[in-house]
Amino acid sequence: MIEEERYCIDILTQLRAVKAALNKVETEILKDHTDHCVVQAIQSGDAKEQKEKFTELVELFERYKQ
Question: Per the structure, how many domains does the chain have?
Answer without folding.
Answer: 1
